[in-house]
Amino acid sequence: MRLQYPTDVRVIQLPCSGRVDILHLLKAFEDGADGVYVAGCMEGDCHFLTGNYKARRKVEYVKKVLDSLGIEPERIEMYNMSSAEGPRFAQVANEFTERIRELGPSPVAADQAA
Amino acid sequence: MKAGSNLEKVLAAGHFAVTGELGPPQGNNAEEVRHKAGFLKGIVESVNITDNQTAVVRMSSWAACKILIDQGLEPNYQMVCRDRNRLALMSDILGATALGIKNVLCLSGDHQRFGSHPESKNVYDLDSVQLLAAFKKMRDEKKFLNEKDLDGAPEIFIGAASNPFADPFEFRVTRLAKKIAAGADFIQTQCIYNMDKFREFMKRAVDKGLHEKCAILAGVTPMKSVGMANYMAKFVPGMDVPAEVVKRLKGVDKKDQGAEGIKMAIEQIEEFKDMEGVAGVHVMAIEWEHRAKEIIEGAGLLPRPKVD
Amino acid sequence: MIVGDTKPLEEILAMIEGRPKVLVLGCRGCVTVCNVGGEKEVGILATALRIARKKNRQEPSIDEMTLERQCDPEYIEELAEVAENYDAIVSIACGVGPQFVAERYPGVAVFPGINTTFIGGALEHGVWAERCQSCGNCLVHNFGGLCPIARCSKSLMNGPCGGSAGGNCEISPDVPCVWDQIVKKMEAMGRLEELERVWPDKNWLTARDGGPRQRVREDLKQ
Fold first, then answer.
1. Residue of B nearest to C180 (CA)
2. Residue C162 sits in which domain range?
3. Total tally of structural domains belonging to chain A
């Protein structure tokens, strides 16, 4: 569809959002990411049945870790969308990027990032 | 006679017995104990003194019992297994009987999670059944749990509690039988509101002949208000408050609810007087001790018998 | 297995404050099985600690290592070359781990990174419950295979108490009344009569009440 979305967004593809690990999410922040979001299928439509539910819970777990480290839990988020919905993908990318722009750079020192 | 207490004598003579209850203050305010005791003098055979009831720290039961003795009343020393190990429990009954206490109740005790100091350590070295057995051994064999002889054995009339409304219902009579086998001379039940269930419980107890081995006293607590009824129905574990009870209280003006509650209590006692297997009633008018007389008198139970 | 719970990150950060080189040490035993102290959790904790350090503009310097177990000297020995290099070793094994490490490497500051809670098993993936109180005299066969010492809040041997309601313990509707379960189980097995037995006072000498315990197998000692 050639819709525009911010170049700040790095896409990492997984076979299912359920494959994402808490460790991956945390390492992204360790390595200097200002924000991380997980895009999974609509609830009830997961090809592997429960992958997206599990992904959501992992995102919740990481929110709590960030909070206890004094980092805004809003820097990580879970979104559900259909892979057929190009406009929704772009919309989420824009929305999340805007949220992170408002929060500013991650307090984790980027110059110390890997 | 096991202890020769007033309660024991009245029951042995075949009268319908009446006991009361009093909760000591959360402090050493002895006057408060005397004040409440005053309302119960002469209208009951003996008065239960609770032991850190609902796991809230209060003046120790044995001390409040002694205050009652000094006032000319007979106490029932309640002892819970939650706070003290077997050393302390045996030690306390020796001290209590040395001070003239004759009736004792062996209870598990409400878990400290809800009490005033939930962080405290849980004891439960013995459970209520094992405590009954320990006291029976001390009284009848004149020995400690370790088989060593006592230098002065306690003469006690031993009691326990029974809750016909806790689950599983079918097992409640079995548990009652266990307590009697372990050493209970008398039983006081949890306060009763569900008369149907209690009748069924008593029927089973009588079938097993338990009423002949042990005096069963039915528990009665007058409802002060609809609020109290709802609270007990929802928040007190092991309490069974039928909808009809709440409905009846709702049917009268707020200012008359207390009087209605007392009326209901009196009706219950009238039925207990004629119920097979019920040897008496335990009136728990907690924080309402000044209304106890009204209930006991209203049920035609005054004056109390004098037995030598 | 021995089950534990994570310690709050704030507590662990306070422990390693002012200690630059840190090792997070996991264990492939019980704590791996209950997902609190295995290799995966070492990674998560170490990453979280590095994030905290970077945020505070401190050297991250948090290493990761997981031993087979931390309750046997032969595995603790594997740290011999490296232990002294660290200003703090945060062990996320059960309470035995930090003690064994501290004893073997007295010059190193050792900290517990989890709170050991109970002996239990998994009810389903992600949920573990207490089953044993290590009283030292197992009698579960008398109670339909359930343990009243560990699973009754009051450890009653002649239960249930008067607070059992709707199959739940008086302390919380989330805690099942094990005595309710015992009665129903024994009834289903046709053994209800056995519960009429009065269980005499328990000998707590075999439990922790008798003092710290040891087990010795003479035939296995060196």
1. B168
2. 135-205
3. 1
